[in-house]
Amino acid sequence: MDILNKLEIKDKLVALVQKENFVGWVYSVDYEKALVITNDIWKTKVHGIPHNSFLLATPFHPDKYSNAKEIDKQVILLRVTGSCKLPQDDDMIRMKIDNFQNQQDPFNDEGVKEYDVLTKNKIQFGGLVCRVIGTFYMKNNEFVLGSDIETFYMSTRLNVFMPKGDALKEIVNYVDPIRQKAAKQEFEKLGIQHDVLPFKIGTVRYTSTDRLNRRTPENFVPFHIQPSDFLARRTAVLGMTRTGKSNMIKQTVSVVKKISDDCNLKIGQLIYDINGEYANANNIDEGAISEIYKNDCTRYRSISKDGFKQLLNNFYKQLQDGHTIICDCIRQKSSSNAADLNLFMNSISFDEPNEVNEKKKFRQKIALYKTILFAAGFVAPKSYKIYFEANETIRNLVDTSVNPNDGLTLEESKNWFIKLRKIKEEIKEENDKISKSRKPEDYNRKFTDKHDNEINKWITEEIRILLNMLYLRNDAGGYFNGHKSITEAVKYHSFDRENDVRQEIYDLLCDGKIVILDLSVGNARIRDNVSKSISSYIFDKSMEMFTNGETPKNIVIYIEEAHNLIGKGSELIDTWPRLAKEGAKYKIALVYATQEVSSVHPNILANTENWFVSHLNSDREIRELAKFYDFEDFSQSLLRSQDVGFSRVKTLSSPFVIPIQIDKFEPKKIIEEQSLNVKKK
Ligand SMILES: Nc1ncnc2c1ncn2[C@@H]1O[C@H](COP(=O)(O)OP(=O)(O)OP(=O)(O)O)[C@@H](O)[C@H]1O
Ligand SMILES: [Mg+2]
Question: What structural domains does the chain harbor?
């Protein structure tokens, strides 16, 4: 390492100590906490010492660093967590009370009884309790922060300073050198050789009342997040409603987009937009994600609208998905308990068999299922025809002039199947009559035993159910709603979609695009099913790439109201919890927002690397959060301050929690930046 570099790093440690911001001395210290004596005058000079602010304690003089003993070359990082009594406080209080009792005027204008100079000096002292966060020191010429103190000496005089400006910036943006190298390697693996610069997302803010410390924007100290923290990691955005969770998610989307653009690295982003706020601009926020990244963003919606692609599948092609949605609609709408309707929901299989004969039966069943869709009003793709085999006996029974293997339109198929169903009924009626007849041998039969056998063989249990659905009659001839009960699902069918919507979305993500699923419309249950089906598709695809030895694509998934998807009660093998827990392995990052920390699966919380927490209003939530990192220090402040965007942030790269005012997401600024970049190019 050259001398200049060494000097610069040495300077980093020295530069933390700002003489002008001296605020007192540590008068007691142990491994966990330090007690600091401070004075009103010093406090005033630094514009107050807010709760939760950082302080630095060091035995060396910043101007005489080179003369300092080796053992003293360290700076202890403290966080103010409360106040404490000095031993002489009781005397001081007695004196103050005495003095008040002698006052006559609240405003001190008349009859003033001032303290003598000595007393006045003494009563200005007070004690602060601080938690030891760690120790900055030099290790093999590197500037590092250990997360504790190694030892303490009762006799060492530790001067305490309040870090401001550049010193504070250094502290809050500190990244462990090992982590820094790991991040660099991660990017190198992705083919990015240059340094990927951190991005600013907010400024340090200690308290809700920020009159003194953050007087003007010049006093704001920027906080940056490390790009690598967000790739293939889990991020929790927690806080009560209207405290800026969605704002934070928008910031994250734009940070990830910037990384993707700057590094020419494809990172797909998938937003599950429950309230439609990312897909549609509103008056307050002036611009939605979809407007800012017009060229790189595709919006999907379950009910058609201009500018949106259809989220749902073609029911004639994605049979299983379509059937699931149909069943959801029936469950929600229909109160019918017709046996055949129940069997339609629970006993129809869409898994294609391997055996030749079974395949033949499968084709017949699917043709009939599609015919039911047609009868229910599901618009078919243009010139749609269906093909299936029917043996000669059946063909002759139904209609000698028609061979379904040559292809039938859906209308023709409907007629064919209805005729088949009628013939089945006629045969049954004939059989009934014969069995009731006194002289069955005299009965003039229209159908033979062969007909009877063949038709019973051809009409399997599944086909029987489907025929009844089409014909709106059960076996006993009683009317039921049959195919009419599935018309509710028509609005979720997209007749012109050729490919699976999930594959289309996955392809867009692999191409580094932003995909927004506007889930603000449509049936909630269907919305959940579609969301789940898309996420499990992405998970499976990425896992498949991984197990095939390929590198899966970088994808970030954003979900809101996460307690519903990755809740405490969910099984870890379910789609969402699996994605949250194992997704990182397959390069899927998850950003989840919720107001209910305690309802999120503990295993997922424990695996979360990045945390953004704003106001929480219940002790229960705070207690849950306090189990993680040093969030406990912020219990009081999280419960009390309700300021929008005031978050306590712990990222993978930062070793401790930092209180931050998150910047407001400003679409206009981003659009301006984009046009500047275009001009530069
Ligand atoms: N950091 C911020 N600075 C200034 N204004 C903000 C900030 N964050 C959010 N806002 C504004 O506050 C309002 C609420 O924010 P947001 O929608 O992000 O909250 P939320 O926590 O997602 O709420 P909900 O629980 O309703 O989804 C919005 O109008 C937004 O523009
Ligand atoms: Mg929101």
Answer: 3-174 (no CATH), 191-204+221-311+500-680 (3.40.50.300), 319-492 (no CATH)
